[in-house]
Design brief:
about 625 residues, globular, about 35% helix, alpha/beta, about 15% strand, five-stranded antiparallel β-sheet, eight-stranded parallel beta barrel, 21 strands
Amino acid sequence: MKPLQIMDTTIRDGQQSLWATRMAIGDMLPILPKMDQVGYWAIESWGGATFDSCLRFLDENPWERLRAIKKSCPQTKLSMLVRGQNLVGYHHYSTDVVTRFIEAAHHNGIDVFRVFDALNDIRNVKDCAKAIKACGAHFEPAISYTVSPVHTLDAYVDYAVALKELGADSICVKDMAGLLTPYRTDRLTRALREATDLPIHLHCHYVGGMAPANYIKGTEAGAEIVDTASAPLAFGNSQPAVEMIVAAFKESGYDTGIDLDLLFEIAEYWEEVRKRAHYKRGVSSLIHMQVYKHQIPGGMMSNLVSQLDVQHAADRLGDVVKEIPRVRAETGFPPLVTPMSQIVGTQAVFNVLTGKRWSVVSAEMKDYLAGKYGKAPGPLDEDILKKVMGNSEVLPDDIAPSTLATQTFDDCKEEIGALANSDEDVLMYALFPNEARAFLSKHRTADKVEFMLAGESSATKEEDYVDINQIRELIRAVEESSIGEVTIKEAGSEITVRKPEVAAAATFAAMPVAAAAAAPAPEKAKAPAAPAATDHPDNWKAITSPMVGTFYAAPAPDAAPFVKLGDEIMAGQTMCIVEAMKLMNEIPAETMCIVKEICVENAQPVEFGQALFYVEPIDSNSGKEKLGE
C-alpha cells in the first residue's frame, strides 16, 4: 500500500465553487508558505475561471498572480485546469495559441496540467497534450464523468486508453456534478487501472455528500491521488475537507502522513478570510441531494439561481430543473461541465421563460449542434436539429473542430499592437479581447503605482513608490470600518485613504480602485420591463428581450446590422443578439414581418421584457399584404 496523495484545490476550485472566483491574490499570499509546508502532491492554483475573473472582477494580471503564487510555494508543484482546446475561455483557439499558452503557463510556474474536454472528444485534447509533453510538464487528462445511456463503463475505459496513447502521466476522473457513488467509483477505478496502468486521480465535488466514501472505495481500488479543500472552502459545491480525508485515512495503510495541526492552522486563516468577505459555508441542501435525479452540478445550480434572479424569475427554478434533463437528452447527453453546462442550462432557462421551447437559441448552442465544439456523445434529436439549424451545415465527424479556429497568435499580436508589452499580454488578448484591452489600457506599469504625496510636487522620487497591494489593503480597511480614513506613515512619507464622502481633500491622485472581494447583494427582484408606452398602430407587434443583457445590432463590431428599418424579414430570421450569461443569444423574428421601429441603440443594456423592435406582421397567405389592411 502507498500513502494516499492529496491535491489541494482551495485557491482554485474551492473558491470557484463557493466564492464565485472572487478571491484576490492578497488573500492568498499570507498563507501560501504554510500550505507549501503541508506536503501536498500539488496545489491547484490557476486555470478554470480564475484567468477570466482576474480581468473581469479583480483588476489583477493573471500572469502576475501565477508568478506570485509560485514564488510563495517553491516546494510544491502547482496545477492548473485547462478546458482542452478552449484553454481557459469558452470557445476553441488555434493550435499555435494553445501551444504558446501552455508554454507560457509552464514557464511561469505550472507543473501539472489537468486537461478536460466537456464532450470527452479526444480531438479537443490533442493540441494541449502535444504542447505539455514538449515542455516536459505533467500531463493529466481528465474524464468528464456523467451518467446517461451512452456513458458506459466501456466508453470511459476506451477514452482512457486513447488518452494514455497521447502520453498521459496520470488519469483524472472529474466528477464535477458529484454523481459518483462508492461502488461506481470502485468499479471505474479498477477498470481504469487495469486498462492503463496509470495513476488514477479522483476529483469529486461534495454536492450530495458521497465524495468522502468515494475516496475511500476508490483508494482501496487503486486510486493514488484525491482532491480536497481547506474546511472553510469545502463541502457543498466544493470538494471534501482535507482535514476530514486526512483523519479518515489515519491508522490505515494509506495514511497520508499530513500534519492535522498544520491543516487546522491553515483552516483558521481561511475562516477569517471567509468571515471578512461575508461568504457562506459550503452546505448541501435538499436540491443538492437531488443531484442523483437532476444531475445538475452544484456550480451550475448556483449559476442558474443567479440567472433567474437577474431575469426576475427566481420562482421558475423548479421548472428549469425539470427542463435541463430534457434539453440534455435532445442534445446528445453532453456532460454538464464548462462550457456545456452554460450552454445547456441557458437553453433550459430560455425554454422556460419564453414558454416556446427552442424559440430563442444562443449562437453557442447552434455551434454545438453544428459540431463546432466536438462530437456529441449521443444522437441529436432530429426535430430539434432541423428546427434550430434549418439548412445550415453540420461539421463532418472527420474534421476536427480545432481547424475552425483560424485566428493565430500573430493575428492577435497585430490587433492589440502597442498595448501588449509581452507574449503574455498577447495571449491575454487572444483569450479575452475586450477585457484584456481594457486592462492593458489601464495598467501600463506592472506592479507599482505612483502617488502624489501631501505637500510634494508631481516630481515623485523612486522611494515614494508604494506597492499596489498595500494600497488595496488600505482601501479594504477603510471600506470595512466605520471611520472616514486610514493613514500610514513610513520612512517619512504619509499616505491617506479616505471614503468617497471625504475624498475631496485626498492627499494623492490617480489611484485605481480595487474590485470588492465580495459580490454585491443582488437587487430585489422586480417585474419584467414593459414595452415602451408610445403610440403604435394596433397591428404592430413588440419584439421584447427574453433576458437581461446587452443588445447588439450586428454579429461583430464592423459587420452590417442583422436588420434595418423597413426590412422585410422571414420567420426565424435573426434580428439581433442579446449577450447574457457569457453567451451570444440570437433573437429571431416570430413571423414574417416588416421592421417598423428599432428601440435600442447598439451595445446598450436591456431589461427582461423590454421592447427591442416594433414590427408589422405580414400575412404569409397574401404575400406582402399586411394584416389589418
